[in-house]
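stage 2 :: seqdesign
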């Protein structure tokens, strides 16, 4: 199950995100898009977890949580 994680600090790493979400279930993938010109993270990520229950637990616990000085926005990713 894939989630959108928004309002990330540019200092938050892929490993930081994986560690944070792993507290709520098995993380199968973390994708942090980067700016084509600068190579810096764009301030959001996509996290995939192994089950809907894990995803729901993570959304409930992490939406609005302060991480690196920013309040995260976490919700189920919409299809393209």
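stage 2 :: out
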């Amino acid at each position: 199950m894939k989630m959108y994680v928004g309002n990330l600090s540019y200092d938050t790493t892929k490993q930081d995100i994986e560690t944070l979400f792993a507290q709520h279930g098995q993380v199968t993938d973390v994708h942090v898009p980067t700016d084509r010109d600068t190579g810096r993270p764009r301030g959001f990520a996509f996290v995939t977890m192994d089950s809907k229950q894990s995803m729901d637990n993570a959304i409930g616990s992490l939406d609005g949580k302060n991480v690196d000085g920013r309040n995260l926005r976490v919700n189920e990713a919409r299809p393209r």
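stage 3 :: structure notes
- Residues 46 and 63 are 14 Å apart (CA to CA).
- The mean pLDDT is 96.
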